[in-house]
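Support request, please re-run this one:
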Amino acid sequence: MSAPRHAAVRPPEHGESDRSPSRAQEDRALFERYLDRRDPVDREALVERFLPLARQLARRYQRPEEPFDDLLQVASLGLVKAIDRFDLEREVAFSSYAVPTILGEIKRYFRDRTWSVRVPRDLQELALKVDRAVAQLNLDLRRAPTVAELARAVESSEEEVLEALEASGAYRATSLESPRGSDDEAGDTLGDTVGTDEQGFARAEDRATLAQLLRAVTPREREVLRLRFEEDLTQAEIGDRIGVSQMQVSRIIRQSLTRLRTVARAGVDEDDDDFE
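Re-run finished. Output below.
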């Protein structure tokens, strides 16, 4: 269920029907005592008196993905700050003074702690207004509102509304371990769709180049190179396997590598000529 719109909620004022003059006098007397002595017991009593106001404001911003207990704790912190800063000499009802303080604390909570990606403050606040407008218009119109209807509801341009809707995507980050959501792809996660650098492509290209270059050496030389660089045998071990001396193995390796370098350089030169 969506929260009511901002104009629909108004805190009770001192002297209204839900707060009798005697209750208002008790509040004032309690404030005078607390502000004079700063007794924690008096502050706790004031918090208990006005906690329903904080709860009411917290419910305005309640969402399925946002635990109400967290919002109530933030609103209660705003209430305590309002109590500590309240000045009786202003001759204004405490509820009128407390509402902006509590709302400011709630908005600061959304701005600083619940957004996964840092978004400008004015855009965050507009995104929250648009989010509430979407929920309210869905109920009123029984369909999804258009951008133009949202712009009129929040008194902003359509471009600003579109930007706010896009910014709303930064409110919650999605884990790469989350399932893709398709029954046909059970077990797959969002992380499986993220591209990575595939080193195998470079190796495949190197293998193709090497296979072409090895045509320039004899089968015997190719076998000696394989034993030396693939099986990592010593020259003496290679000599024992093919029936030659270590010195001959060294000569074969040296000559075959020189031939491979020559062919490789010739191929590069031919590519340069073709390019020109």
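Residues 1-18, 268-276 have pLDDT under 50 and may be disordered. The two ends are 71 Å apart (CA to CA).
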